[in-house]
Each structure stands twice: as structure tokens, then as C-alpha cells.
Amino acid sequence: MTQEKYYFENPKSSIRSLTEDEIEAAIADYENGVKISEICQKYPKVKVSSFYKQLPYKLNQEKCEYCNNQIYTKVRKNGYGNDLAKLCIYCNHDYTKNCNCEQCFHNTNVALEEKRKELQIVWKNFYTEYYNLNYTLNDISIFDEIYLVLLIQSYKGTFENTLDFSYFKQLKFQVHASSHEYYSVINNLIDRKILIPNIYYFDSYDYIYSSEPSLPTINSTKINWIPNIIKTSGTLLSVSELDKILKERTYSVEDKKILWREVYWSEIKSYINDQSNKYLKMVIDDQTIEQVVDGLQPTFPLSKAYNLIYIAINASHRYMQDYSKNERKVNSYFRNKMNELILRYQDHKNLKDYNRLLYIELSYFNQYVLKNILKQENAYFYLSTDKILDNPIVG
Ligand SMILES: [Zn+2]
Ligand SMILES: [Zn+2]
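A: This is the predicted complex of the input protein with zinc ion.
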């Protein structure tokens, strides 16, 4: 097969009209760095614009590494690089890294596929070694259980039976108003390996193939997660199975005591924080709050506890004006005042019920406990602890 001596990338090239000698001379001039305007002055038919593109490729003795036809070569634009630009006009191979010819495309895919298989082996070895222990339902706390139910509710992925936190980070943890509540919870469950990555990580995410991790980097937002809790048969519980078990589980009085304490404590803490911030402009410390909760919880519903806190905060405010603004002294005054009030109002005589402040958010955890476990989501604020625990079903 004879091949044309020149190949014009631009079929309308004005250089086509020149004789072979003139074409050779024009190419030589360009190679030697003669200005394009000067070259064009010699050949009035040649257009100045896009001159390089008009210059032809020239047939070379070298054969294409893929299809064995003779390739064409051309000087680089503005003498850029010492080698010649190569092109096979039969298979479109251009010998560059970005070549789009069929064979190069195929080779790239083969290389990617190999890389992917390598990564899968690395990942699987890592996975078996790092996640070699499983939990049973008995190993996890009642708090973990409830958080798992809440996470399943909010983050059950589009992949069947996985948890997908991918939107979590993108929206800066603001999926819902209270989602900061979930941030540490998710990290904690991942750290303790109660949540583990879905083994099919590399099968599901194409972009990981192009990165070059020597070891898998686990990014909680880029993979789907599954619970690492086994059934008696030894296989992992699926997200749906776990969800069902946890929702249908019954809770003992002991469990309920623990959970009610959590709700009561956080309701008291929120109110004290709110009131001290507003009237005292200082912090009542956690230790004081803990002691106040211990004193209030056995006898006072939250509605009456709020009344006592209101009185004690007011008294502390007067104490600050009359005596001292020292934070430690105010804390201790507040604690003593609360103890005094708790004793004085043991029988609740002349103690009005306060209403809950609606702007204080009830956490998802507490909402779940009140609604699904204590079954007191509406009345809980006005009931004493013994009512909450004795009479869990109302309505
Ligand atoms: Zn070729
Ligand atoms: Zn190619």
C-alpha cells in the first residue's frame, strides 16, 4: 500500500497549493524558526492565520506500534520539544499519554482494572484483619441501641441495608436542626467498630480507583456502613433486621430508670443553662447540676422542678447584687438554695406547675425514649418519676 507523502490535518490548508519543493522549504523554514510572516511573504497564496495547523504531517519510515502502517510526523509547535509529533492516520494513535485511539483506550481500561483488583485485595486483607471481631446484641449498651435506631431512621442508604452518611459532611453536619447530636455518636460507633464499612466499598465507588492509596483511607462520608453485630448463627445482622429487633425489644424497669434519668437530667440541665445564662450571665457547673438532679428527681415532676429552679436562680441573682459575683460562690449559693427549696416543698404545697420552654430543643434521643420506650411523650413534663415508671402506658 502506498501512502501519501503529506497528511494535512486541515483539509483546506492553503499550503496544499504549493509544490513539493515549496512545502519542504516552508517546513524547513518553520523548523529553523523563521517568522511565519516572513514565510508567508515568500508564498502569497499561504494564509498566516493558523499557520501551524495548516502545516502537513510528513510520511515517516517508522511503523505504527499498533497497526503497522507508516506513521506521519511533524515539527512541534513553535519548536516546543525536540522530538517530532507522531500520528498514525489509520488508527489515530498519536503516541501521547492522552491519546484517544481505540488501542490506547483499551490499554488504559486494562490498567485500571488491574489497579482495581489490586486495591480490592489490599482492602479485603485490611478488612479481615482490622474488623476481625464482632459484637453481639448483649455487648452493646442501651444508649448504643437507641442511637443505632435513630441513625437507621435518618441515614438508611439507597444501597439496601447500609447506612449512608455522605450528605452529612457536605452539609456541615446540619442535616436537621439537631444533627450535631449525631456527629460524635457516629464517630464513636465507628471508633468502637460497632459500625463497620460495607465490604463492597471498592465495588461501589469508581473514583477510588484513580486515587493511589497504599492502604484504604476510610472516610465516613464516602462509604456505606453496616452494623457489626452478629446473630446466633454467626452472620451479621442486616440494617433492617437490627432495626426490627431494636424496635420490638421490651425494656425492663431498670432500663427505663436509666433512660428516664437521662431525659430528666437533660431537661434540668437545659433549663438551668438557659436561666443562668439569662439572669446570672455565668455558668452553673455540671457537678452542681448533677447534685440538683439527684435532689429533685425522686419527688418533683419537671414542671415543679422548673419552678424551684426559677426561685433559686432569682435568689442567686439577688445574692450576686448584694454579696459576690464570684462564680464558685454563686454556684455554691445556688446549690444550697436548691437543697433548701427541695426540703421546704417536699409535699408540693403551694408549688405551681411551670410549663416547658418550647424553644429548648428536645434531642432526638429523648424524643425517642419518651415516645417509644416510656410512652409519655405528652405528659412526661408534669409527671413524677414513680408515675413515669409505674404507669408507662397512657391513652
Ligand atoms: Zn496505527
Ligand atoms: Zn493511541
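The mean pLDDT is 87. Residues 93, 99, 101, 103-104 surround zinc ion (ligand 2) (CB under 6 Å).
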